[in-house]
Specification:
Blueprint (H helix, E strand, L loop, with lengths): L1 E2 L5 E5 L2 E4 L7 E3 L4 H8 L12 H9 L3 E2 L13 H10 L5 H9 L2 E5 L3 H12 L4 E5 L25 H12 L4 E4 L3 H6 L4 E7 L4 H10 L3 E6 L3 E4 L15 H11 L3 H8 L13 H19 L9 E6 L6 E4 L14
Parallel strand pairs: 6-7, 6-9, 7-8, 9-10
Antiparallel strand pairs: 1-5, 2-3, 3-4, 10-11, 11-12, 12-13
Helix pairs in contact: 3-4, 5-11
Zinc ion (ZN) binds next to helix 9.
């Protein structure tokens, strides 16, 4: 057997070595001769069977830190090594390379390029997602620039947000195909593997319905005066029949507040986001990062935390709280699956 890739191996004492730092799997291997401790510290990709007593091998096996002897490390692009190693350690099969390769074949659409949407897009690009479709015809404002993506203005300063960030994203992640699309219909026609929508105040119910009708996985990011909502992640009806869609949440809100539809209509009216000043930088980093992590969990074959739930991220702490939502009995979204 060999140690899994990506593990730190550290000396604790002359006869004791620690394998792993993350408390989810880190183990202490004690009772070693100095020679055996040294061999474990320098194991790398070499077999450890002969280097360790049976008790130590059992401890490593129980912690899930061993892989079959002779398993060859599969190569991955140098910039994606952190993705492959960290995600490999969290997967039962230990195969982070497979995750990274799946991402490279995926296309994700980001509809709404405020700071949170742009952060989600740049994070997905850096994490190895192969294609991005961007849609946001609104003019670029002074508070719309996010993280490392330098938005480009035209000479007269008038350009749309999607066009403004394309070059920056291409420089950030040259292997990711980045394209601008005009309108949700054009985005949906390309059948991306997931759609992130970023908007101020609320998600437009018409967009939510179009996404549900297209049966495409989608995740809303909504920023309000001083917080952000990420989720719920809505997947194909066949996968998540009992989980809520975005309309379910609006129906729940209307149950609690009969005037919610009136308020909602104002939040999503054309030009309403002109009243929204933009997204504070740290809030955008957390909300956009969470959205990217949720999409990656989906692309990697895992379960997004916000399937049937929503992160609430407040200013100033930016500490996410996960709130669960149920499907609304009056929505009938599961019935769309036929
Ligand atoms: Zn629903």
């Amino acid at each position: 057997m060999q140690l899994r890739q990506g593990l730190r191996v550290l000396r604790r004492a002359r006869d004791e070595v620690q394998v792993g730092v993350d408390p989810r799997w880190a183990v202490r291997v004690g009772g070693l001769t100095p020679e055996r401790a040294e061999r474990l510290l320098r194991a790398g990709d070499r077999p450890v069977d002969d280097a360790l007593p049976a008790s130590a091998l059992a401890a490593l096996r129980a912690a899930g830190l061993l892989r079959p002897r002779g398993a060859r490390a599969r190569r991955v692009r140098p910039d994606l090594v952190p993705e492959a190693l960290a995600h490999g350690l969290t997967r039962a099969d230990g195969d982070g390379v497979d995750s990274v390769r799946r991402r490279s074949r995926a296309t994700v659409a980001v509809v709404g390029l405020d700071r949170a949407g742009t952060t989600a897009a740049s994070t997905l690009a850096l994490a190895g997602v192969g294609g991005l479709l961007l849609d946001d015809p609104r003019p670029l404002g002074p508070a719309d620039v996010a993280g490392p993506v330098a938005a480009r203005r035209t000479v007269d300063g008038a350009t749309d947000r999607a066009t403004a960030v394309v070059d920056g994203l291409r420089r950030l992640a040259p292997r990711t195909r980045v394209h601008v699309r005009r309108g949700l219909g054009a985005v949906l026609a390309e059948r991306p593997d997931a759609v992130v929508t970023a908007s101020a105040g609320a998600t437009d119910p018409a967009s939510a319905l179009a996404l549900l009708g297209a049966d495409l996985p989608h995740l809303p990011v909504v920023t309000r005066e001083a917080d952000a909502l990420v989720g719920p992640f809505v997947r194909a009806a066949a996968d998540d029949r009992a989980l809520p869609c975005l309309r379910c949440l609006d129906l729940h809100r209307a149950d609690a507040d009969p005037a919610w539809p009136v308020v909602l209509a104002q939040l999503v009216a054309p030009g309403a986001d002109g009243h929204a000043p933009g997204v504070p930088a740290a809030l955008a980093a957390v909300a956009g990062g969470l959205a990217a992590a949720e999409v990656l969990a989906h692309l990697d074959g895992g379960s997004p935390r916000t399937a049937g739930a929503q992160y609430e991220v407040p200013v100033p702490s930016a500490e996410p709280r996960l709130r669960r939502w149920a499907a609304h009995p009056a929505c009938g979204c599961a019935a769309l699956d036929g």
